[in-house]
Amino acid sequence: MNQKVLIIDDEPDIRELLDITLMRMGIDTVLAENVTQAKESLASETFDLCLTDMNLPDGNGIELIAHAQERNANLPIVVITAYGSMETAVSALKAGAFDFISKPVDLKQLRDLVLSAFKLPNSKQSSTKKPQTVGSTEQTNKILGESKAVELLRKQVTKLSRSQAPVYIHGESGSGKELAAKLIHDLGPRSDGPFIAVNCGAIPNELMESEFFGHKKGAFTGATENKEGFFQAAHGGTLFLDEVADLPLAMQVKLLRSLQEKSVRPVGEQKEISIDVRILSATHKNLSEEVEAHRFRQDLFYRINVITLNVPSLRERKEDIELLATKLLDKISSEWQMDHIQLDPEAMSALKAYHFPGNIRELQNILERAYTLCEDDVIHTDDLQLPISSNLINSDTNIDIAEISALDDYLESIEKQAIQQALEETKWNKTAAAKRLGITFRALRYKLKKLEME
Predict the structure, then answer these.
(1) Cα-Cα-Cα-Cα dihedral of 424, 429, 434, 436, to 10°?
(2) Rounded distance, CA 110 to CA 334, Å?
(3) Can you give the pTM of this predicted structure?
(4) How many CA atoms does the CB half-sphere of 384 hold within 13 Å?
(5) Closest alpha carbon to 368 in 331, 394, 399
(6) What does the pLDDT look like over 433-443, one tens digit per residue?
């Protein structure tokens, strides 16, 4: 059976253009010129997609979105907006529209949008092309936990995967923001496309434009060949901008323009390149405060913060700590092909009482360290090496992440040198080397794998 699309526009020329374009794609269409006719069609027929103008004689697209979702929450709706009317487009996305397209309608962009919408669950094309994975328990259970906070997060991720709206993911460092972003991508119609994750705080300012938009050969000294930027690499998929608050103001202006125009211009190139990406962004900072402090542009904030997804901290889901710790220990023992180790009850209680300013990432680091220290295949409280003042730690403490990273790199280099020396002095006898270093054989094996020294 062919897909069926409801087209709503009061301008006959646009209705005819949309109708002919979709018919050439082998899609059945039903035409309406106002909200009243559209409601009658929605009541009597089943559609795979709805294309509607925002401004209609007897109503608007927002009203129609609300009405259609009452009848069928899974019906994707694409809103047609006036050129440059981003405020209207954002309002439509917040109301639940799948996506928007501006007048004059770009037919290639329209075809891409339609095909993308047909990949959503409950559409004829998605059900015949591949097994249904969207919203599946197997996918959403990658967010480990049984707490109410996690259950709510799973539901929100599933719902957001059905839209193309930009999502701002807010949460503390180590809470799982990238995992949430990846699931929104994997559960949605762009799952066949690339997922490109970018740490905005790790890119030098002078390379920012080239990294995001690419460059042409000879554009500047050192540009020996054409380079594809993050936007081009993510074409047809999702671009995840992690730590987006760290973008310099000059780059924020260029990013905003690319999002509005859905195109990029590589450095040294004269022509713009159309891009089809969904933008997900995240930061551990309070983006509203960054806007108030004039460190983040309000118009960009408005553009990327169409929908906000809050990822709970580990302190907000302490009932999940036991499950998380067990799963992480299983993962550690499997990855390093080592004996399975358990936590004794006192150690588990200590973890549950800990503040976890670093959230799940910190929990994993604590368990990895304890794994290498314990002697009898059971992790005790002392093996965890939790800070004595753990209850006094505040997650809002101002910590320079760059300084911590540099220190970690320095300590790791010293650790490598010590292990290398011990192995050479014992003629690569690992048991003897571990004894010389004053650590367990298990700890040495773990360090060799982690430091890639095997």
Answers:
(1) -60
(2) 47
(3) 0.78
(4) 26
(5) 331
(6) 888 888 878 77
